[in-house]
Amino acid sequence: MKTQKKEVYNFQSETKKLLHLMIHSLYSNKEIFLRELISNSSDAIDKLRFESISSPELYENDSDVKIQISINKAQRTLIISDNGIGMTKEDTIENLGTIAKSGTKSFLQEGEYNITNIVKKTRGTEITLFLKKEEEEFLETWRIKNIISKYSDHITIPIHIQDYDKKNKTYFWEQINKAKALWTLNKSSITEEEYKDFYKHLTNDQNDPLIWSHNHVEGNQEYISLLYIPEKAAWDIWNRDNKHGLKLYVKRVYIMDNSQAFLPNYLRFIKGLIDSSDLPLNISREILQDNSITEKLRKSLIKKSLSMLEKLAQKNNEKYQIFWKNEQQEKIYYITADSYSSANNSPHLELFKKNNIDVLLLSDRIDEWMMNYLSEFEGKKFQSISKEDISLNKLTKEKKIKNKDVSTEMIEFLKKVKNILGNQVKDVRLTHRLTETPCVLLSDSTEMTTQMAKLFSAAGQSVPELKYIFEINPDHILIKKICTINNENELHQWIKLLLDQALLAEKGNLENPHKFISRMNKLLIK
User: pLDDT for 238-267, tens place per residue?
Assistant: First the structure.
């Protein structure tokens, strides 16, 4: 038996320098090396399929094509192999020794590929990577699985990874990719449930989409797009720092999230993907470059998106009303707070959450001052939800509570609260605006807000004493129980505790926290 002779070829010095520049300057994400190697293996198998049409013997009685990945931690190697068309000695030198040389591209352009000179024992290609010590993460099976699922989940070729069964103490091959890209299938073969399930998988949204548009366009620019309109706007849709856009694939291979090149900012609520082999990517295939092709695709996708909205309005007006804003809403509501968490958990939001009304959450110090000068936007006035607003009753269909609508006990309780609190508050009212909280403080429409008072205080200016409107939720179980207390001293303590809780929720602090804790402890003991 002849011993196989290994031949070593080195890159020229100029090529080495260029490779070093590319690796350290153009590639921002290390993990895409595996995406590219898997794509190369997939291309090699596609070549084999193409050539085998005229030369079936190329399969060598093995038509079960696959890509296999194995890890050897002891030798610090990652091995990627395929049973595709493989490479001759000349192909290897030409394609691996030349920058920006694509064997696949040459194959498709020439229309043929000379494989008669291939001399080998096993069909295909095997790449062995010797990893640096600092790159040990790529020797972990779970890490490789995650990369495959992220970038190559929809490649048609099965991708297997060698794993170890600790129970049976045996190695086995596990297929990682689904090998199915729903958007590449014929629309007639896809069910409504499959479209909905794919949307949830794509966006992590638990709700069904309102409508979708699946398009396979052929011609000068061939591409596939699958666009969805969500039932609800994303929570961060107004955050300028967050990116919005479509997922980008090239021949089923994932390239990037949130590609903003295809849709304008006003359509940022659209979810979906585009898959095209004609798109101009940079050399690392991480960045989409602007050119005439991108612009043409952008115009087409804008047209498709607007057509979806038009179709929704014409054929399903009820769903369109879900998408569109509330026509009765005359104001733009907002709340200011010290932090996003404080704003998002404010009891003032309960009414708006109940009625599905959008509220701007503002947490920068300058916001309160800014909103005093920013009075309206496109004819809609801004309204702080921490201030009383009669127009809310019309918008939410909540009726103002009248004495005839509540029990005699609750009316008497309200009088007692007013007597106990006296001039500590401006007024005491019953309200149905709360759903989870027993009480809340509102600023009078003419009063300074809590946040503005904090701004004045931080600037060293005197702040007038704030008098709040104390609103009580008569349907809350705690209020109902306190209402039955006959002991005057105990009732007095409970009312003071409710006011302190409301002050804490509104201001974030109390003048005398020790007294608050002492009062709460005494009531808890009882």
Answer: 665 667 788 888 888 888 787 778 888 888
Q: H or E segment at 441?
A: strand 439-442
Query: Is the Cβ–Cβ distance between 473 and 501 less than 8 Å?
Result: no
Q: What domains lie within the chain, and their CATH numbers?
A: 13-175 (3.30.565.10), 182-323 (3.30.230.80), 331-525 (1.20.120.790)
Closest to 395 in 3D by CA, of 407, 383, 411: 383
- Chain segment 488-515, per-residue pLDDT in tens: 999 999 999 999 999 898 888 888 889 8
Q: Are 427 and 472 in contact (CB under 8 A)?
A: no
Measured CA distances, 118 to 39, 58, 122, 163, 433 (Å): 22, 11, 11, 32, 79
Whole-structure pTM value: 0.48
Query: In Å, how far from its chain's centre is CA 192?
Result: 23
How far apart are alpha carbons 115 and 358 in whole angstroms? 64
Residue 414: C-alpha distances to residues 158, 233, 498, 519 (Å): 71, 40, 13, 21
The pLDDT value recorded for residue 226 is: 94
Provide the pairing of β-strand 380-384 with 376-377. Answer: antiparallel
Mean pLDDT (the chain) is: 80
The predicted structure's pLDDT at residue 190 = 92
